[in-house]
Amino acid sequence: MKKQQWKPGNMLYPLPAVLVSLGREGEKPNLITVAWTGTVCTNPPMVYISVRPERYSYSILKETKTFVINLTTEKLLKATDYCGVRSGRDVDKFKETGLTAIPGPVTGCPMVAESPVNLECKVKEVKALGSHDMFLAEVVAVHVSEDYMEGNGRFCLNQTGLVAYSHGEYFSLGKKLGTFGYSVRKPAKKKGKHRR
């Protein structure tokens, strides 16, 4: 397969498109759409978001050192896109999108009630990296919607309609192709009939 070499750039796709909620006490809460986010560590549970210093949310993050990652779904996609192209300096994003802000019980940071999963986070370190600063944070609480719980206590995350961002476009998750470890799993033995 023939390849072209391009200048260095971020071509690591797809990524989650998440709504990050944050706010100062006594002020209207804000939302920012982030695709530069991901898992860093399991124990302790750590995540990161990367934000440009010129963004309205940047100073709030630096001051409060708390935020919530709200996973987004197909139903939340229009609001997710809106919060990525409008500034909290100019508009009340919760009001304009019709989303509901509820206080996170651990951080006090606003959470998006309509999101199926909310990760309350406390910033541990801010790293200036260039165009963006990385906010490295510990997940201090996870909240999941009971609408996607099965009777056995299993949370059905993949039934929530999650969306992904890839090279300027949004996508819904497609069909399931396998489960973790399927490539090395031994096939189940067929039960044969035994004669006596």
TrEMBL record:
The keyword Flavoprotein applies. SUPFAM superfamilies: FMN-binding split barrel (SSF50475). One of its GO terms (molecular function) is FMN binding. The keyword Lipid metabolism does not apply. Gene3D superfamilies: Electron Transport, Fmn-binding Protein, Chain A (2.30.110.10). Residues 11-157 form the Flavin reductase like domain. Its cofactor is FMN. Keywords: Flavoprotein. Pfam families: Flavin_Reduct (PF01613). SMART domains: Flavin_Reduct. PANTHER family: FLAVOREDOXIN, FLAVOREDOXIN-RELATED-RELATED. Belongs to the flavoredoxin family. This is Flavin reductase family protein. It comes from Fusicatenibacter faecihominis. The lineage of its organism: Bacteria, Bacillati, Bacillota, Clostridia, Lachnospirales.
